[in-house]
Design brief:
Elements: H1 2-5, E1 9-13, H2 20-36, E2 42-46, H3 51-57, E3 62-65, H4 76-84, H5 93-100, H6 102-111, E4 119-121, H7 128-138, E5 143-147, E6 157-159, H8 165-176, E7 179-183, E8 187-195, E9 198-207, H9 214-218, E10 223-226, H10 233-249, E11 255-263, E12 268-274, H11 284-291, H12 296-305
Parallel strand pairs: 1-2, 1-3
Antiparallel strand pairs: 4-7, 5-6, 5-7, 8-9, 8-11, 9-10, 11-12
Length: 310
Amino acid sequence: MEKLKKLKIAVLMGGRSSEREVSLRSGKNVLASLARMGFKHVEQMDLDGDLLGKLKKSKIQAVFIALHGRFGEDGCVQGLLEIAGLPYTGSGVLASALAMNKVAAKKIFQARGIPTPNFSEINREIDINKEADRISRVFPYPLVLKPVSEGSSVGVTIVKESDNLEGILKAAVDEFEDVFVEEFIKGKEVTVGILGEEPLPVLELKPKSEFYDFKSKYTKGATDFILPARLSKPLYEKVQATALLAHRALGCRGLSRVDVIVSEDHVPFVHEVNTIPGLTDLSDLPAEAAHAGITFDELILRILESAFEK
């Protein structure tokens, strides 16, 4: 740690995605943690068009990425930092891009035999009415509509009947362009953090709303967090193993958070992999780490160390 303390470190936070406010909260927690541990040469930076210039001007030597969503979690900033020759936390360009694109990730899961809910991409080039018709023939209701490249459950909609599908599809395409529909799996929502190459304790999420949406994730008291998840020991271990398989399948490094739904017949279906999990006071990864006996400061230090393990 003493060697790390001598480095000039930028905590990259904010950005331009729909998750900007969450990223700012994560970043502030990272800054406070580094200060507690005695890091003196740490600078807060927002993501903008002059990022390279700012990094060069401040003589930054390593970057802690606390960005969420587009431009920060999708490989864009990782590619920029690769060009700049700067070590950074978390996954590389390809893994970040694959994880952010839920359809690309699900295709890899399917190829690797990792259970994931059935899905269908929406073809924006043909009539939305025809697409709605096709989906209604293929998928039972309820079904789930998702943007391809958003995080924090932004834009996720549970569609309960075919009557309003056309309107919901049109609105989603207008707002997000690339969307897909997914089979609704009834079961327990759980999440598993991966730190290094080790799965953390499984966290069960019991939202007080219909599902674990943006409000449920970032509003205090909106979700009951159950640690460890209420699963039999064999199923608990199977969920952890499946999460690690998904992490590795995409080539993730350092850390991730794998979101899983455990069906009523005990199959862990992987929804998605998040390469830069939230680090807010209500975020899942710090809670899982704490249950494993890892303090928040230890977690931040281990994430920072991952920048130099590539």
